[in-house]
Amino acid sequence: MRTRAGAGSFVIAVAAATLGFGAPAQAATIEPTVFFDGMMPTGNCTLREAVEASNLNEAVDACEAGDANKRDTIQLQAGEYNLTIDGEDNDNSTGDLDVTPEIGSGPLRVRGEGIDVTTIDAENDDRVIQLYILNDPGSLAVTDLTALGNEERVTSGGVIAASQGELVVERVEVADGEAQFGGGISCSSCDKFRLTDSNVHNNKATTTSTGAPGVEARGGAISVSGENAAITNTSVIANEAFANDSVAIGGGIYMSGEVELRGSYIGTNQTRSSTNNAIATRAGGGVYVDDDSDPGAVTIVNTTFSANFANFTGAASQGGGLAVEGDSTVDVFGTTLVDNDASAGEQVHAQNGAKIEVAGSILASIGNGVVCAQDGGTIRSKGYNVLDDQPALAAACMDGPQSTKDEIAEPSVSFTPIGNGGPTSTYVISSSSPALDLVPKKKCKPAGKADQRGVERPNGKGCDAGSYERTECADSLIDGQSIVGTSDKDKLTGTAAEDVFAPTAGADKLKASDGDDRICSGSGDDELKGGDGADMLRGDKGKDDCDGGQGNDSGKSCEKEKSL
Question: Which of 8, 197, 201, 333 has the highest local Cβ count within 10 Å?
Fold first, then answer.
């Protein structure tokens, strides 16, 4: 058994969240009975045979038949499923698992028991799973598991791949994949793509071409194109796009088309090549936006870019954090780009007609590098940004009449991004940062009522610039030990420790346990209930119901009070 990079201890946790498209009633649930690979009749049900039963809508070995035109579910147990049959066919008999709607299968969900509990390991010479479409549309969902590639290069999607159709990946760790396009995940010209609450790390996009201009390695972690794509609450870490004398773009993510990136962390990804050849283009250490196949609009909201690198040894490189090419349009709001590196545009680079608009964000270099670069493209400020404290370095970020509302100042952020609550890492802004309350409330709408972590915006006279909203609950700063919900209706329960509940939007039910807890309501109509400790309950704008419980509790701004 291989050890996953960055994996924590195994804890059984069955997720309750639902997919963006639900399972039709009475669809088949197919349960593999063994962890080894195989397609020979043995009286067992292997994972490969379960996929085949869904493809054919008939029983295969001991696997129940799938149902045509209904979403089958392959329910996996806790443990590691090893794919060991070598081969690169597309009929599911060898290599990866091939979901083939051409032969009559309906939509398929492959579901584990938790990201730290269930693993599919491609120990063959192919990826883990592919939605293989020739003509008919198809739909694949992969949820609640870890998927491991094998560092054997394929053309697209080193771990998970789809072309056209619908691909949903939720609560999945994707690692150790290698491909020319999308080292971890590739979704090419997809009708719908969703990547949510996941961790994509240690994947590579590579090409071995030598001295061939135009040959690309793109999307070290993810390559996505299409008209309906979203990446949300996901960490993209330590991935690489590597080209041998050619083009390496999108060390973390390559995007083309209509894509939204929200609430995510893009960190320590890179683009590089093996030599100093002048044609060896390296761009978009974190994210590269292209008009290659689907010129459109990309939105980046409440996201942190940190320590991404477009390697410039011996040749130029562009956009350490974000590079945008061609006719693409990118809107950036409530985002932090700090400590990324490239020879041109350490944080942001626009070229060949690209249009980037930035508002309510933090862009700063560590050192003396130029923050933004315009190379035939435009970068326009929509105001309320905190830019590098050296005006000459931030000059190309300041186009447009709204730039007068920017702050040219040291942003005063923490040395490195860390877990400050929520699913992904953020920089902390200090209590004296110029980012505090910089964005007027009326201009906060693109943030969607929350920061990157899920903590409610605004928390003062305005929203804080960047991806982090500095927030306290009863004088305690919301940090990595805090309990943070979402902008929807949440039901959250504390632990035996002294918990701090962060204020979030939505009508929430917040229940403390044994410690001396601090419970803060957001703007919704919330129910706050203390436990056995001496709890502090704080209401907010909504109609809040506060019940202190058994301890010596205090309440404030509650419409209804009990035991306080």
Answer: 333
What's the pLDDT tens digit per position in 168-209? 999 999 999 999 999 999 999 899 999 999 999 999 999 876
Question: Hey, is 36 helix, strand or coil?
Answer: coil
0.90 surpassed by pTM:
yes
The tokens describing 39, both together, are: 């397609």
φ/ψ (deg, to 5) at 198 = -125, 175
- Taking the CB of residue 218, how many other CB atoms lie within 10 A of it? 32
C-alpha–C-alpha distance, residues 426 and 416, integer Å: 8
Cα(241)–Cα(183) distance, integer angstroms: 8
* Number of residues assigned to the chain: 564
336, 365 Cβ separation under 8 angstroms: no
Which amino acid belongs to residue 344? A
Residue 394 is inside which H or E element, if any? helix 391-394
H-helix or E-strand spanning residue 50: helix 47-56
How large is the greatest C-alpha to C-alpha distance in the chain, in angstroms? Answer: 75
As a whole number of Å, the CA-based R_g of the chain is: 24
Instruction: Return the HEC string of 176-203.
Output: CCEEEECCCEEEEEECEEEEECCEEECC
Question: What region does 273 belong to: left with phi over 0, alpha with psi -120 to 50, or beta?
Answer: beta
Give the CA distances from residue 80 to residues 88, 114, 395, 497, in Å, rounded to whole numbers and listed in that order: 22, 12, 52, 33
User: 406: Cβ–Cβ under 8 A, 6 or more apart, which residues?
Assistant: 381, 383, 384, 385, 386, 387, 397, 398
